[in-house]
Design a protein that fits this description.
This protein is about 30% helix and about 25% strand. The chain has a 6-stranded antiparallel barrel with strand order 13-16-15-14-17-18. Helix 1 packs parallel to helix 11 and helix 8 packs across helix 10.
């Protein structure tokens, strides 16, 4: 039996602690907050998107960084296993749009309660309000941790599951990155991910609060397509947000481009070019003697109409029967590709997850153990692993936590 310390009471840490204890080890879980799962509590808008019920191939496709590294973890602990775990703890689950899995109660607190119940049953000792200052090591082996109060806790194995630096108010303040750096591990610079995008155009803030559903976006870096999707988006006082935009943020790094990426919004993706032209013509024919500004209310949300008029370059007071074919063409192109310039990502305090972290090159993918320091394991968001929205990031946490827990000897 090994004496194991797990640092961090988030999803990866709780899974690592539970499965290490189930394997017969003496496990102590250290959490610096006043409760476990503080960030988990706010995920999925407080409902907790536990995982995704798609097939594992789809799960892999939705991983953005270091997909191949997760092969062992994902097949050691699949989404079905995660769902079975929670059902065994008495938590009922349901599957919603996009195969997202939520508790039937719609309360993330029930997910955390199920995890606590499992930890108690497995005999895991949980210490709250306990902050780790640094890892203790002798040569190339970890021997325990030094707490912020100066106390040393010795252990045979240590698991670092401290999360990233998104939502720092929940305790994700990058502690694990410091532990990793001090023990010689390489780092991939952390950046915010699954976060709103900042934009340049002055008209964007004027649309604040406008939600567009069933639109498609394409983000381009010159001729290279960085992201393409269909869904819902929202205009804010600084740029754009919404489910589709959060996913887009995981695929782009504006700081790496010579030119700012351009996002093109197709407001009518269900219509091809010819169909859209006929639709615009029909609206114009029905409003032949009206002014242009009064003829397109069926084509666009009212808040968007002044923007479409301004960008099309068509005089708002111009009679519809005077609009030229060229002007109609401009309106059509604008409808199919409304351009928005991306200037940057939202901040860590807005980010759902962190992109970057401890380099997976220094971690054994079959065990989650460090290749540099014996008996030291890393799992969850502290690693350079991230995915799109839809329950995939939590699946990474469960799978890597599980693999770390069962790999401890």
């Amino acid at each position: 039996m090994s004496k194991v310390i797990v640092i961090g009471g988030g999803p990866a840490g709780m899974f690592a602690a539970y499965f290490a204890a189930r394997s017969g080890h003496q496990v102590t879980l250290l959490e610096k907050n006043e409760k476990l799962g503080k960030k988990l509590y706010i995920t999925g808008k407080g409902r907790c998107n536990v995982t995704n019920a798609s097939d594992m191939e789809t799960i892999f496709q939705n991983v953005v960084s270091n997909r191949k590294f997760l092969y062992s973890a994902f097949y050691a602990c699949t989404n079905d296993m995660v769902m079975d775990f929670f059902k065994e703890q008495g938590l009922e689950l349901k599957i919603e749009r996009g195969n997202r899995v939520f508790p039937v109660s719609d309360h993330s607190s029930d997910v955390i309660a199920a995890l606590k119940k499992a930890l108690d049953k497995a005999g895991v000792k949980v210490l709250l309000h306990t902050t780790v200052k640094e890892l203790l090591q002798e040569e190339d082996k970890v021997t325990g941790v030094l707490l912020s109060d100066g106390k040393k806790m010795m252990a045979d194995k240590v698991v670092v599951a401290t999360g990233g630096i998104s939502y720092p108010s929940t305790g994700s303040t990058g502690d694990g990155y410091e532990f990793a750096k001090k023990t010689g591990h390489r780092m991939v610079t952390p950046t915010p991910s699954l976060v709103p995008l900042h934009t340049k155009e002055a008209w964007v803030p004027e649309l604040q609060g406008l939600s567009l559903k069933n639109v498609s976006v394409k983000i381009m870096d010159g001729k290279k397509v960085l992201f393409e999707d269909f869904g819902e988006m929202l205009f804010t006082h600084f740029g754009v947000s919404g489910p589709m935009i959060l996913s887009a943020s995981g695929s782009i790094r504006p700081d790496r481009f010579e030119k700012e990426p351009i996002m093109y919004i197709n407001l009518k993706p269900a219509l091809d070019e010819e169909q859209l032209d006929r639709r615009i013509l029909r609206e114009f024919e029905e409003s032949m003697n009206k002014q242009f500004k009064n003829s397109i209310n069926k084509l666009y949300p009212s808040k968007l109409i002044p923007v479409m008029i301004e960008l099309s370059g068509i005089d708002s007071d111009k009679k519809v029967n005077e609009i030229s074919k060229e002007e109609r063409r401009r309106l059509l192109e604008l409808t199919r590709a409304l351009p928005v310039t991306i200037t940057g990502l939202g901040e860590f305090k807005e980010a759902i997850i962190t992109k970057g972290g401890v380099s997976v090159k220094d971690i054994n993918p079959s065990t989650m153990e460090s290749k540099l320091i014996k008996d030291l394991y890393f799992c969850g968001e502290v690693l350079d692993l991230d995915a799109l929205t839809g329950g995939y990031n939590l699946q990474i946490a469960w799978s890597t936590g599980y693999l770390a827990g069962i790999s401890i000897e």
